[in-house]
Amino acid sequence: MQILWIKYCAIIAMAIFFSIPAQTAALSDQSQPEKSITLDEAQHWLTTGEYQKAYQAFLFHAESQQNALAQFTLGLFHQQGWGMSVDMKKACLWFEKAAKSAVPAASHLLAECFQNGFHGPIDFVQALHWFQQAASLGHGVSLCSMADLIMMGKGAPKDPQKALNLCQQAALSGSVPAQLHMGKLYLNGDVSIQNPQQAAEWFYQAAKKESREAFYYLGLIHRDFLNDPVHALDWFEKAASQGYLPAYFLTAQLYFNAPVTENTHLPTAENLAKAYMWLSATRQRSNDSDEINTVEQMLAQVEQIMPSSWKKDLDQKISQHLNTFHHQ
Questions:
Q1: Among candidates 162, 126, 128, which has minimal Cα distance to 145?
Q2: Are 249 and 295 contacting, i.e. CB atoms less than 8 angstroms apart?
Q3: Confidence grade of residue 326 (pLDDT, cut at 50, 70, 90)
Q4: What sections of the chain are H helices per DSSP?
């Protein structure tokens, strides 16, 4: 719930920022209680998990008042499954209503509906149209979604350079999602524009703003393209330390495979302890059965040489970390 509410707040704030009117004044007719409920009250019920009450209040404002913010929020209910089963078809219908009232984030999500076939047959031309609409209303990262389609020639002629230029507009404005997107385009986009060095530059920009995902990708670049396992480990562990699950096992692997000492031919104490911690954390959080099997085998090797007296303290640190980041 916490993560979903953070996302909800961010989008709602965006909608308000771009001057989408909100019906917050109580209605004059007191004979029907629902008519006196404001959107502020509805949002409060949503934050406290009173989904049925919140939904009915938003529904009243969406239908009777044609309030675009309420329509958009109903789309989020169906998209996120707040108090109900996820229903992308219904979500898209509400996003369309809000998008026609120029809600930027609704336009972006409606584009995704057309892109993924949730709103009828897949229609990349319509997806590009609504991404463009969202971008024109200030939702800059929609330019990067347009770039993905143009990079592949979906809905428009394939043009990798045009795709880069579009996303770069948003990235240069300081948008972290757009900077990450630029990095991925340079890393995994069309072969004609792949450039790991340029990818790293954009990931560095996002890393300056403490993006965990940027830390992770910088780890990949240092490992796979720069042959620099030392700095790769630094970046992976920085991401893992902030709860970024994809970095857990990669961090554990590098500690596990670190060079042994010349005298004992065993891992250093720090590398052994870190390998145990990140392997244990991976085992507890991973949903990948193959990865877990590999982790179990590696842990068995670590525990053969790790002093048993370390285990209690290390397990406590692992528990503290997982308790801090278990929602992420």
A1: 128
A2: yes
A3: confident
A4: 2-17, 39-47, 51-63, 68-80, 88-99, 104-116, 124-136, 142-152, 160-172, 176-188, 196-207, 212-224, 229-241, 246-256, 269-285, 289-305, 311-325
| pLDDT tens per residue, range 106-145 | 999 999 999 999 999 999 999 999 999 999 999 999 999 9
> Is residue 285 a contact partner of residue 245, using CB atoms and an 8 Å limit?
yes
**What is residue 327's predicted lDDT score, i.e. its pLDDT?**
62
Coil, strand or helix: which one is 139? coil
| 8 Å CB contact between 262 and 289 | no
Amino acid at 60: F
3-class DSSP state of 266: coil
For residues 205 and 175, is the Cβ–Cβ distance under 8 A? no
What is the rounded CA–CA span in Å between residue 54 and residue 167? Answer: 37
Structure tokens at 220: 């990949």
Residue with tokens 């809600």: 103
